[in-house]
Amino acid sequence: MHQKIIIEGGRKLKGEVTVSGAKNAALKLMAASIILGDTCELYNVPELTDVYTMTNLLRTLGAEVDYNEEEQKVTINAAEIDNVEAHYDFVSTMRASFIVLGALLGRFHEAKVALPGGCSIGERRIDFHIKGLEALGAQVKIEGGYVIAKAKKLTGSKIYLDRPSVGATENIMLASVLAEGSTILSNAAQEPEIIDLANFLNAMGCDISGAGTSEIIINGVRQRDLNPLSYTTIPDRVEAGTYIAAIIATRGKAVIRNIFPNHLSAVTSKVIEMGGKITVLDPFSIEVSFCGKLNGVNIVTQPYPGFPTDLQSPFISALVQAEGVSIVTENIYENRFRQLGELRRMGADVQQESNKAIIKGVRQLTGAQVIATDLRAGAALIIAGLCADGVSEVKDIYHVDRGYEKIVEKFSNLGANIKRIELDETNLDVKINNIDEPLF
Ligand code: EPZ
User: What is the structure's pLDDT at 121?
Assistant: First the structure.
């Protein structure tokens, strides 16, 4: 069923919101359960379409997976995995599936995983993944749209990444935890999700140190020495940052709970530069408030601990209404400004010049019909709708449901006028125009 989100803008967000578990950590922990070959329980796993996709992928490999949505708990028993092929249907809908490559290779010395193509935000190559696996002793070839990796034996190695790729760091970690000897991974990604993966693997008995720095050392262990475990996923810093952007954009005041504030340092610094106030209430909660005028700022996306690429679009939705000119430079992806055309439909004055968005603040956005082109662009358009004068409709909301748990409910609880509408696919317009009850 197609759905869209309808928003009547103009309300300042207030109250509090609780952040869910991190999508980009939970998906990797689920894939890493392949290494164990026993039972693991994962808590704080958000109810997202991507989590269901990973659940189904692990099942096709032969793992038993139970997802208890109410408890936000996934139980995985990977003892009986008997298939090492991740089909294109999974990888094409969710790139994070590609992470099973390292886990399958690490445990079974064999994997066949569909090659992810480019995607709407950029080319997203996998050359560092392949070089890393080859350095561990795997033979890797690409055939019929699949990456096929095999190894008689995996041996620890010194590996340098040309850039700190999150996915390559994770695949190499997973392929090397059961290898013979030590692997030293230099220029590794330092994202909190990498630390979470290392902590999870160490809790099952692996030996990884240095995660969260640019050099990770992985000493191979024997699979039979691993143990079952229960583990809680870290909070979603990108979801938290999205709500922070929304609170600032609507000039509101609200508390954000279940976060690790230090994961958001680059983001909260920008909020302060924009004229916002951040108060740390306790180790897991902050209050975000805004008073006075909203200043334009420059943002440059970088690997962690720099400003995250995943939050540039939500912040652009705040900056389009800020005083003066802001420049947002995107350094991670080639094509992550696709929402700009939609924002212009809402009255924003924003132009793209190569990898920069040049934003001239306007007084007021106006509600319009817009289309979400990817997950974060969708969130950005919802934020713009919350600020705009009048009613906005955000279509193709399935992108947003991949990464934001209960987004409509959470914004409603913050006082927004927002609802989700199911469309009759056979006659979309008639259903919307003839809606009986008033939208708000
Ligand atoms: C992860 O993607 C996240 N996805 C992305 O989140 C996030 O934007 C990204 O890290 C950067 O923080 C998941 O965790 C599932 P990369 P990943 O490998 O691992 C280039 C979201 O909205 N590169 O660090 O794919 C690549 O083309 C998503 O939740 C190579 O050139 O990111 C890209 O330009 C979107 N060769 C850059 O590095 C390689 O072999 C960063 O990619 C690998 C990557």
Answer: 82
Closest by Cα among 374, 321, 314 to 350: 321
Judge whether 2-20+235-432 and 23-232 match in fold.
Answer: yes
Boundaries of every domain in the chain: 2-20+235-432, 23-232
Residues of the chain falling short of pLDDT 50 = 429-436
Centre of ligand 1 to C-alpha 321, Å, is 29
Q: Tell me which CATH code domain 23-232 carries.
A: 3.65.10.10
pLDDT at 321: 96
Pocket lining: 127 vs ligand 1, CB cutoff 6 Å: yes
User: Tens digit of pLDDT for each residue in 208-219?
Assistant: 999 999 999 999
For 344, the token pair is: 């212009």
Instruction: Report which ligand 1 atom has the smallest distance to the Cα of 375.
Output: 22
CATH number for 2-20+235-432 (one of 2.20.25.10, 3.65.10.10, 1.10.3720.10, 3.40.50.1240): it is 3.65.10.10
Residue 96 CB less than 6 A away from ligand 1:
yes
pLDDT score recorded for residue 247: 98
Annotated catalytic, 119?
yes
What pLDDT, on the 0 to 100 scale, is given for residue 37?
87
Considering only CA atoms, which of 396, 420, 301, 275 is closest in space to residue 339? 396
Q: How far apart are CA 188 and CA 169, in angstroms?
A: 6
Tokens at 105, concatenated: 């290779």
Q: How many A from CA of 96 to the centre of ligand 1?
A: 9
Distance between CA atoms of residues 396 and 345, nearest Å: 16
Would the pTM count as exceeding 0.90? yes
